[in-house]
Structure formats: structure tokens, C-alpha cells
Amino acid sequence: MFEKDPRTFEADIKGLSPEQKAMVKLEITLTKFFKSFNESIGRWERLVYPTVFILAILGFSGFYLIYHLTRDMTTMTQSIDPRMADNLSAMSSHMARLSENIEKMTGQIGIMVEKLESMDSNITRITTTIDSVNGSMTEMTGDMGEMKTAINTMSWNIYQMNNAMRDMNLSTRRMSRDINDLSEPMDIMNNFTPW
User: Fold this and answer.
1) For 94-117, what is each residue's pLDDT tens digit?
2) Which class for 115: exposed (0-12), middle (13-18), buried (19 or more C-beta within 10 A)?
């Protein structure tokens, strides 16, 4: 009785009071609502369960791929160059020595500039007063001795800087060779990528 449309069975509910008619119509409406609600829940179940299953499969496959990727990266880093850290630390120490030598050279150039300024003032004094030529020449001779020492020191620093640059070139060559050797593991790694 509740499955019928209220307009099609007016004769069945003629003897009922208006409140009872309203209750019957309400009951019919609620029955239709719950029936359509149950149908929509069934549609949602058919959509949600496969979606949850697919997401679970994707999560597990993502975990599997990440696990193998990290394992392959570990293998690759171990097979690249076990001495790369040593080479990089040697290059770093050579760079530190180079920096120290450049600082020393800068200091020596500063001293040389001071000496040249002092020599310039001595030459000015020589031209202005002939009487003080001997004193100025003695002073200039001492300055030249200091300048010679400074130049010798600078020459030694340049020699050390040359050695440091040679070591750095050697380390750079080694690093270039190691990077070229890295191309084979990278080709192997490309086989594991899903794209």
C-alpha cells in the first residue's frame, strides 16, 4: 500500500481523517526517500570500493619503487668512486693553501707598494737636494734590499701557488674522469625509471 502514489489510491484512504491521510502520505514519501537513498548508497559502494583498492595498490607500488630507488642509489654511490671524498678533501686543502698564498702575496704586494712609495720620496729628495744624495742613496739601498727580500718571498709564494694550482688541476682531472665513469651507472639507473 505504501508503494503506491497517493493520487492513484484516493479511494483507499477516503475514510481516513486528514491527519491520517497526511501521515500515510508522509510514510509513502519517507519510504520512497529511503528506497532512493539505499540505491544511491549502492552506487557509491560500487564507486568507492574499487577506488580504495586502486589507491592501496598505488600506495604499495609507490613504496616498492621508492625502496628500490634508494637501494639502487646506495649501490650507485658505492660504485662511483670510493676515493672521491679523499680527492675532494685534498682539493679543499689545496684551495685553502692557495688562499693563504694569495693572502701572503697580497701582503707582499702591499709591502712592495709601501717600498715603492718610499723609493719615490727618496728620488724626489735626490732631485731637490744634491747635498742629501748620499743619505738618500743609503736609504734607497736598504729599501732595495728589503724589496729584494720581499720579491724573493713573493717569488717563493708564486712557486707554491704554482704547485697548488698543479695539484688542483690534477684533482680536477681525476674528478672529471670520475664523472665520466659515472655515466655507466646512470645508464643502468635510467632502466629503473618508470618514465
Assistant:
1) 788 888 888 888 888 888 888 877
2) middle
